[in-house]
Amino acid sequence: MNISALLVMDLQRAIVDRVSDLDPGYTRRLARAVAAAREAGVPVVYVVVGFRVGRPEARSSAMFGALPEGAFADGDPGAVIHADVAPRPGEAVVTKKRVSAFAGSDLSLVLRGGGIGHLVLAGLATSGVVLSTLRQAADLDYRLTVLADGCADTDPEVHRVLTEKVFPRQAGVTTVDAWIASLS
Question: Where is the Isochorismatase-like domain (predicted)?
Fold first, then answer.
């Protein structure tokens, strides 16, 4: 299983809005990675957080239970994937119920079905979905790469520590530009 996939995680408008002031070029940079993946034939898999009406699966979570009614449910404009990186028809969109891309989702089935053994991680936030997904994916024996500038966090120091000190223990860490160049 040497097939790679680019995971674009939690790039929903309400989440992007929280970090866009810190890095205004973030979604355009990530859009370049998505375009390069498509051109190279690397599957792009989108992961979003989403809840049923009434959010019964969120009530037991300290993080998600505090969200306002209707947040990340059908019809919430903040739950829509940002237009800069929106999926094309036929690209997988996986809905998760917790922080990790694997928690409460069918991501494992999508990856196994595609013969994918190497995950390239990008998303918001570095200390949330990226960290949780990296840890779980490492335990599931996926090969991992993190696009350091394809991730962002509301706390730049936390982002730096994770990408420079924590993630390299379990993943290759690179930049969007370097990863794009490696696809050639």
Answer: 4-177
Instruction: Map residue 138 onto helix, strand or coil.
Output: helix
Q: Are 116 and 43 in contact (CB under 8 A)?
A: yes
**In the chain, where the domains are located:** 3-182
Per-residue pLDDT tens for 145-184?
Answer: 999 999 999 999 999 999 999 999 999 999 999 999 999 8
Residues 120/92, Cβ–Cβ less than 8 Å: no
The CATH H-level superfamily of 3-182 is Isochorismatase-like (3.40.50.850)
Query: Distance (Å, rounded) from C-alpha 100 to C-alpha 134?
Result: 8
Q: Which of 108, 111, 149 is nearest to 130 (CA)?
A: 149
Alpha-carbon distance of 171 to 162, in angstroms, equals 11
Q: What is the pTM of this model?
A: 0.95
Looking at residue 71, what is its pLDDT? 87
Only one residue has tokens 């200390």, namely: 127
**Residue 112 to residues 7, 85, 99, 118, 130: CA-CA distances in angstroms?**
14, 24, 21, 11, 20
